[in-house]
Design a protein that fits this description.
Elements lengths: L2 H5 L5 H28 L5 H28 L10 H5 L14 H26 L4 H26 L1
Helix pairs in contact: 2-3, 2-5, 3-6, 5-6
The structure holds fe (ii) ion (FE2) (2 copies).
The site of one fe (ii) ion (FE2) has 7 residues, from helix 3, helix 5 and helix 6.
């Protein structure tokens, strides 16, 4: 991102990057959690759950990549140290269920994680609206995907 592009950002860049980095860490935790549950899920109809978890894991990894790209363009660096990911995240890592066949628990975990993600991106969207168009655009794109993730799993809960 060029000088002028950074100059028109009407926000404290350091603070903005801090928020983006926290979201970046959240995405890695979410990716790992969903990927892990996809690999280990068992029991009846496990294949459907595996497919959904793998799909969402892929989306979260994509979000991490998009945020890393944006942070870099803003002239900063995404968190480099793996052990710093959890420390810098907005919420602690949620443990996968002990019983890998506990589909209801998996659904509750995902629904909660997605609700947290929606809150995080809603806050960043409000902060950046009209202040940093580029960030706002990416954040609302990610937010709309988190909204559909929540919906997918909320619908399962109602069954
Ligand atoms: Fe995400
Ligand atoms: Fe998500």
């Amino acid at each position: 991102m060029g000088k002028q592009a950074r100059a028109i950002v009407d926000l404290n860049l350091k603070e903005l990057v801090k928020d983006l980095n926290k979201a970046y860490c959240d995405e890695w935790l979410a990716f790992y959690l969903y990927w892990y549950m996809a690999q280990t899920v068992s029991g009846r109809a496990y294949e459907d759950m595996q497919e959904m978890l793998n799909k969402i894991a892929k989306d979260e990894l994509e979000h991490a990549g998009e945020l890393a790209d944006l942070i870099t363009k803003l002239g900063d660096v995404p968190v480099a140290n793996l052990t710093e990911l959890e420390k810098n995240a907005n919420a602690p890592y949620m443990m996968p269920p002990k019983n890998s066949a506990d589909i209801n628990r998996i659904i509750r975990i995902v629904t909660e994680a997605e609700a947290q993600a929606i809150d995080v991106y809603n806050k960043i969207a409000k902060k950046t609206q009209g202040k940093d168009h580029n960030t706002y655009q990416l954040i609302t794109h990610i937010l709309s995907e988190e909204i559909s993730h929540e919906e997918m799993f909320e619908n399962l809960q109602e069954r």
